[in-house]
Specification:
Keywords: Guanine-nucleotide releasing factor. By secondary structure, the chain is an all-alpha fold. It has helices at about 1-15, 35, 40-60, 65-85, 85-95, 100-105, 105-110, 115-125, 130-140, 150-165, 175-195, 205-210, 220-230.
Amino acid sequence: MELAEQITMLDHIVFRSIPYEEFLGQGWMKVDKTERTPYIMKTSQHFNDMSNLVASQIMAHTDVGSRANSIEKWLAVADICRCLNNYNGVLEITSALNRSPIYRLKKTWAKVCKQTKALMDRLQKTVSTEGRFKNLRETLKNCNPPCVPYLGMYLTDLAFIEEGTPNFTEEGLVNFSKMRMISHIIREIRQFQQSPYRIEHQPKVTQFLLDKTLVMDEDTLYDLSLKIEPRVLPG
């Protein structure tokens, strides 16, 4: 519960800090994105850091049983994030579990209980990219803020509108329907940015969540994964 709450609090702080100007003009896709959209880049960096932490925490267990327990624990955390309307947190955790160093551990997954696997399927359905995040949109429509949506969904939408719709009509007039579509998305983001969570800060927990020394890089994770469960050669 504490982990889920503090993850949600941190996720919302990072999400809330993005100024609306950064959502205009697809700055996050440009070469100088760090200068143009520092807060969007910070948000995606935070997402990756959280995801890496979860993966590293699971891989730090040398014993197959405790590794399976760790997967079950993190999925329970993801489910509480869902209850807190933190869909970004759900994705941070499920994407960690889907990374190849963890995903390939057949013996570990064999020890994860059926209910947890069913829970994982449910969570993944909610935040799936399928049909341009169809399920997540539906969920957000019916959700009462506070909420942390997944920023990537909105960035995809904005890019889609920017690229697919001209700025001017054939008559050379400003394309207002394009402006309306963009402002509609930004308004939705702002609505979620402005509803604060009432979560008490637990410094010990956030210190752990933000501790970079606990995080392994992708290569280390993969090497460790191969050590834990070596590749089975066919034949």
